[in-house]
Automatic annotation (TrEMBL):
GO terms for biological process: allantoin catabolic process; purine nucleobase catabolic process. Belongs to the metallo-dependent hydrolases superfamily. DHOase family. Class I DHOase subfamily. Belongs to the metallo-dependent hydrolases superfamily. Allantoinase family. Catalyzes the conversion of allantoin (5-ureidohydantoin) to allantoic acid by hydrolytic cleavage of the five-member hydantoin ring. InterPro entries: Allantoinase, Allantoinase_bact, Amidohydro-rel, DHOase/Allantoinase_Hydrolase, Dihydroorotase_CS, Metal-dep_hydrolase_composite, Metal_Hydrolase. Pathway: Nitrogen metabolism; (S)-allantoin degradation; allantoate from (S)-allantoin: step 1/1. It comes from the Bacteria. It comes from Deinococcus aerius. Binds 2 Zn(2+) ions per subunit. Keywords: Hydrolase, Metal-binding, Purine metabolism, Zinc. The modification N6-carboxylysine is found at residue 146. The keyword Cytoplasm does not apply. Zn(2+) 1 binds at residues 59, 61, 146, 311. This is Allantoinase.
Amino acid sequence: MYDLLIRGGSLVREDGIETADLGIAEGRIVDLAPELDGPAREELDARGLHVFPGAVDIHVHFNEPGRTEWEGLSTGSRALIAGGGTTFADMPLNSTPPVLDRATFEAKRQAAERGSHADFALWGGLTPRNMDRLPELAGAGAVGFKAFMSHSGLEEFESPDDYTLYEGMRLARELGLIVALHAESNSITQGLSARIRSEGGRSVRDYLRSRPAIAEVEAVSRALLLAEETGARLHLVHLSTGRAVTLAAEAKARGVDVSLETCPHYLCFTGEDMERLGAVLKCAPPLRDAGEVEALWTAIREGRIDTIGSDHSPSTLDLKERADFFEVWGGIGGVQSTLGVLLTEGRARGLTLPHIARLLARTPAERFGLTGKGRVEPGFDADLVLVDLDAEWVHTAEDLHTRWKYSPYLGRTFRGRVRRTLLRGQTVYADGPHSGGTFPTPPQGRFLRPAAPTPQEVTP
Ligand SMILES: NC(=O)N[C@H]1NC(=O)NC1=O
Ligand SMILES: [Zn+2]
């Protein structure tokens, strides 16, 4: 007896699209065949819809506890599942206190167990202050350690210098956990900012000038050297330039254990858009030019970029409404739009559906040891997204489930609409005029502890 039988969906599998039934029991996919007999407690007609694995967004800032007014685990996870995600990994900042030891980790875990509508993993921080706490963070179940090579924007989350990063990577390697790096040079970005500000620079263009591509390229190359030397597993978050991608891909080809992430905003917008739209698009690294956007799409198409995370990092409106662009909070609200961007812009550039599923679900799940996540296959959790690929729609503020109803994607036309999201076989989101009311109470999200890397993944 199945708990649920999903009939006739076009399943997005590794080797292509296959129309078949899915039998689900105890939260898992147990059978997959052209026609299943049942019986089942419930049936769902998915004919005409594509069935994707729920997206695994390895890079979000939901900011709870401490800055829940910026986003929050409940609102953030609702937006995630409405956009086709079922798992996220929350960054150790901008929640406050930041996650730097076991106590702060447990506090966030408890908050997420109460409030999250999606399954979740949690990052710990790597800063000069908590090097002695990395083992206890690993013991608590951290998915990895996040560090900023440039200023994080928050005083309480300090950047490691090269020595600290070197020691931190050695320790992370011993603990078997990935180090995720925001790779921009502190020295270059701070130096340029100071000079530009002393000359009176306050505009978007001035901000863009303060964080040139070389700041990313230099930091990425230093991070790769340190990872190569220490044998640490490295994840480069939000890469924004073709040159940084090339350096990282070359390092990977010679055996450095590195994964590459970019974000939808680097694929959709340019510095000129930032000048036009302002605060809603402020981010670091900043947006680049159209040539970089195309270089990133080419790198995705050719398989050099592994994952796409949203880097969802909104704030309250007052922090977005500053005359001095350097003082505007840097962070984009985009957690609900990642699948939409890939289905629209990605497909327009020739990405296949299995490739999109790999970028958003399978690869992040495998890379971060989130066993049972990321694939539409027997044995995997029934974390599924039913999508009407032909539906064309214009994104409005009413669609947003985030705490603040702003997003750079408002007014944009998307092709492909999420009709339903299932988490471990349970419908947690259904599209419709009153979709705000369909989220289950209590929230169903569960904590995920990363599995140890498989032996072949461990660098000798
Ligand atoms: N602290 C924080 O969320 N920073 C993020 N925002 C952004 O635009 N880039 C980041 O790294
Ligand atoms: Zn981030």
